Amino acid sequence: HNLVTQKRYEKPVDFTKIEIAKLPTVMIVGRPNVGKSALFNRLIRRREALVYNTPDDHVTRDIREGVAKLSDLRFRVLDSAGLEAEATSGSVLHRTAGMTANVLSRSQFAIFLTDARAGLHPLDLEVGKWLRKNAPQIKPIVVMNKCESLFDSSGSIATAANEMFRLGFGDPIAISAETGLGLPDLYQSLRPVLEDYMLQVLDEEKTQENSYSEDGCAAEVNESKLPLQLAIVGRPNVGKSTLLNTLLQEDRVLVGPEAGLTRDSIRTQFEFQGRTIYLVDTAGWLQRTKQEKGPSSLSIVQSRKNLLRAHIIALVLDAEEIANARRSMKHAEVVIARRAVEEGRGLVVIVNKMDLLRGKNKSSSYTKVMEAVPQEIQTVIPQITGIPVIFTSALEGRGRTALLHQVIDTYEKWCSRLPTARLNRWLLKVMSRHSWKDHSAQPKIKYFTQVKARPPTFVAFLNGKTKLSDTDIRFLTKSLKEDFDLGGIPIRIMQRFIT
Ligand code: GDP
Ligand code: GDP
């Protein structure tokens, strides 16, 4: 056993190479004003993020998530306000307390932040009690903040540390979030525990991989088992934040009248039927669309870089708007749908707020929307038949399962790989069905192969000098989709001459 441990430490984990979704999660907890946001900002190194110092300022009350960089260490860090909670029931603070418990249950580690200048505060003891009750699985690291001036006067830190020791979570670490002093000490105490955690995760993965390769289709299985990256996009007010909450099944993103609540949590993940689904920069997009008005509000997602980070784009439309409009999709929505497909992403269209079309005198609107949306999508994106449309009511929490099944189905199709032998048997049959009337000289496909997945991309190798026409390519694409159940996703076919 000793040998194993030794061997492990010979080769420390390289956190910089680990996928974000797999990194350990560290939550920063503490009473208001100890500097949680300041520490969060320092760890994620996004200086533009604001720090507000009034505890009842709504703007700091949601949970923020980011990737922390501490030397070569990487972890996901969550900043939450609101352990202070219970007293102010009904307010945002109260709601945040529930969220904190929920998120804490998904964190593997916690930094319990205190203020060394203020000394041990009664609320610190409350937080400690709260932690023991709500997250007994986590052994927090106590960190004393605002130590910058205490480092000079010998003894001050020791005095503060003595007090904080009474919290019962071991020796505290002295830092200054504002100046960065003491962060190496934080690194020293985090690194071994995070590394142990990471080694365990990597070990488990290896065991899983081995069991995949035993059934001889390792490549196929692994590819679609990679975490699915989902982006939820749409114009303001269609219900993206509400839908997000439904998906996460927790109040991770607050929706409500308070201004500015959905701020810069970067990434969020959740599990559905044993699969990790990873939401791509959704909060950033939500925030931008909330600030921008009118048709330009999708500009952010139209940038190629942002789009390419997602595998599946879920475009949210508003059922009530559609019922009252001549067209189902506004210009910005058409643009984003086309863009998603052009970039080879899987597209799922969500028609939300269906609950508003229920009841008396509304059934005709209901039917109209159900019929109009798929038709219009077919018109604006004629090259792909069967782009999935899911009808939801995020407000009532309806449609979650259907939506997630669809997202996964689309993703699996998007990841599929067809063996060359099978494709060529198929090619023989399908080419005999095809009429070549556009051509004076008929192109000869020598063989056909899939060169990559995500999205499925094929190459037709040609003998002779005649290229496949657009009609031929369309025919091949259509047949591939029908015969291999690849409908609703972009497929690419390229051609090469064998020289
Ligand atoms: P939170 O409520 O725990 O998120 O606390 P904030 O991050 O909003 O910080 C509360 C106040 O403490 C702000 O005025 C910060 O500028 C200040 N603060 C944060 N970190 C430090 C620090 O390391 N040293 C000093 N002197 N002040 C700090
Ligand atoms: P976002 O701007 O796209 O993030 O939209 P929000 O999630 O903030 O929702 C905008 C408004 O629509 C809020 O008042 C929501 O309560 C409401 N809303 C969201 N989903 C539904 C739904 O399925 N049905 C109804 N009736 N209202 C909804």
From TrEMBL:
Keyword Repeat applies: yes
Every G domain range: 25-146, 230-353
Sorted UniProt keywords: GTP-binding, Nucleotide-binding, Repeat, Ribosome biogenesis
Residue stretches making up the GTPase Der C-terminal KH-domain-like domain: 417-496
GO biological process terms held by the UniProt record: ribosome biogenesis
An example molecular function term from Gene Ontology annotations: GTP binding
Similarity annotation: Belongs to the TRAFAC class TrmE-Era-EngA-EngB-Septin-like GTPase superfamily. EngA (Der) GTPase family.
Name the UniProt record assigns to this protein: GTPase Der
Organism of this sequence: Senna tora
Lineage: Eukaryota, Viridiplantae, Streptophyta, Embryophyta, Tracheophyta
Segment of the intact protein contained: 113 to 611 of 657
